[in-house]
Write a structure and sequence with these properties.
Mean pLDDT: 93
Shape: globular
Number of helices: 12
Radius of gyration: 21 Å
Order of helices and strands: HHEHEHEEHEEEEEHHHHEHHEH
Strand content: 5-15%
CATH topology of the largest domain: Aspartate Aminotransferase, domain 2
Low-confidence stretches: 219-237
Number of domains: 2
Oligomer: single chain
CATH superfamily of the largest domain: Type I PLP-dependent aspartate aminotransferase-like (Major domain)
Number of strands: 11
Largest sheet: 7 strands, mixed
Strand order of the largest sheet: 1-9-8-5-4-2-3
CATH architecture of the largest domain: 3-Layer(aba) Sandwich
Distance between the termini: 25 Å
Helix content: 25-40%
Length: 382
């Protein structure tokens, strides 16, 4: 069924095709060419990331991170259960045991105060997921990292152009705080290339090895210098480099990041203002932006009391040609992880799995469509 108001619609700035043609004329479209370098330089300059490597997906960036911190069988990694499966799979593939943290009561991000009790002598890393582009409390997480000598890898898939404000009032881009971080440019994100991702390297010690892994686990320069034994080989099997076609598309988006973000924030704000009174009256939660976080308008969601009310809302909107969608299913209850989980109840993760509903949000969403979505929701009878 085609919806008159889809959940997402890819946005074109107008330069994408021109840059793709230019990439082809450059004569190198397999990766690590002109537009890959332009994208990497953009992020390094704008957000002060130490080193950026563009990847074919956020999944690949997470897999690179797992390789870089030398995840081995028996290692434990702490992450939220309410996240996309790639967050966990990147570490499971290298033998790690996943220890799931619950979500917060007030919002879907992981409960930072629950992490320390999950740390054991086998814990190697914490993976905070900045859900909806809203920061986790990174002061708390980095304090645990320092106390227990743990790596922190930020899953910043949804967090482009979003910031954390630390205890000293310093504003830091998400993805710049942990040792490593992973971003996504999937077509549902703010800035897109269809598929695509990026590894941000904030700890300098990972830079050289990351570049080797990025290039299929090889280092030809080292080979010709005769010091190839200096490097350890990794079993990766394929390149993490994205096509120049994707990077040309992405660069056109990056040139228009500010206008895209402004448009999305305008839509997000209209949803919030239009639904605040209704939500309060019906005891339905809207997104919460804590004092230490900024809002990149990646997502607008509603959290209902129970799954029945959410189902009523989904069906009502669908009947009117509007596609709204739920989000993650708690990973600790999936068939793969169910028997591997330690049995703890993660009630808030399960609550968001059952009760959270995402509304359409894309740059071409008109004022009349926004008003229509709001009015239909406000007329729903539960």
């Amino acid at each position: 069924m085609k919806h008159s108001t889809p959940f997402n619609k890819p946005y074109l700035t107008g330069k994408e095709i021109d840059y793709i043609k230019d990439a082809v004329h450059e004569g190198k479209i397999s990766g690590n060419g002109k537009y890959t370098r332009k994208c990497q330089e953009y992020f390094e300059k704008k957000y002060s990331f130490h080193k950026c490597l563009m990847t074919t997906s956020c999944t690949d960036a997470l897999e690179m991170a797992a390789i870089l911190i030398n995840i081995e069988p028996g290692d434990e990694v702490i992450m939220p259960s309410f996240t996309f499966v790639s967050t966990a799979n990147a570490f499971v593939l290298r033998g790690a045991r996943i220890v799931f943290a619950d979500s917060r009561k007030d919002r879907p991000g992981m409960d930072e105060d629950s992490i320390e009790a999950l740390i054991t002598e086998k814990t190697k890393a914490i993976i905070p997921v900045h859900y909806a582009g809203i920061a986790c409390d990174m002061d708390k997480i980095m304090a645990l990292s320092e106390k227990y000598n743990l790596f922190v890898i930020e899953d910043a898939a949804q967090a482009i152009d979003s910031y954390y404000i630390n205890k000293d009032g310093e504003k830091k881009p998400l993805g710049s705080i942990g040792h490593l971080s992973a971003f996504s440019f999937h077509e549902t994100k703010n800035i897109i290339s269809g598929e695509g991702g990026m590894l941000s390297i904030n700890d300098k010690k990972f830079k050289e090895r990351a570049e080797i892994i990025w290039e299929k686990g090889t280092n030809r320069a080292a080979f010709f210098r005769g010091d190839v034994d200096k490097y350890s080989w990794v079993d990766i099997g394929s390149s993490f480099l994205p096509s120049e076609i994707l990077m040309a598309f992405l660069y056109a988006q990056l040139e228009n990041l500010e206008s895209i973000q402004k448009t999305r924030l305008n839509i997000w704000t209209k949803y919030y203002k239009g639904l605040s009174e209704w939500a309060l009256k019906n005891e339905i939660k809207l997104p919460l932006i804590p004092d230490f976080a900024t809002n990149n308008s990646h997502m607008f969601y509603l959290v209902f009391d129970d799954i029945k009310k959410r189902t009523v809302a989904i069906n009502r909107l669908r009947d009117q040609g509007i596609l709204s969608v739920f989000h993650y299913l708690s990973l600790h209850k999936s068939k793969f992880y169910k028997n591997k989980h330690d049995g703890r109840q993660l009630k808030f993760s399960d609550h968001y799995s059952d009760c959270l509903l995402r509304l359409p949000l894309y740059c071409d969403l008109s004022d009349s469509e926004i008003s229509r979505v709001i009015n239909i929701i406000k007329k729903i009878k539960f």
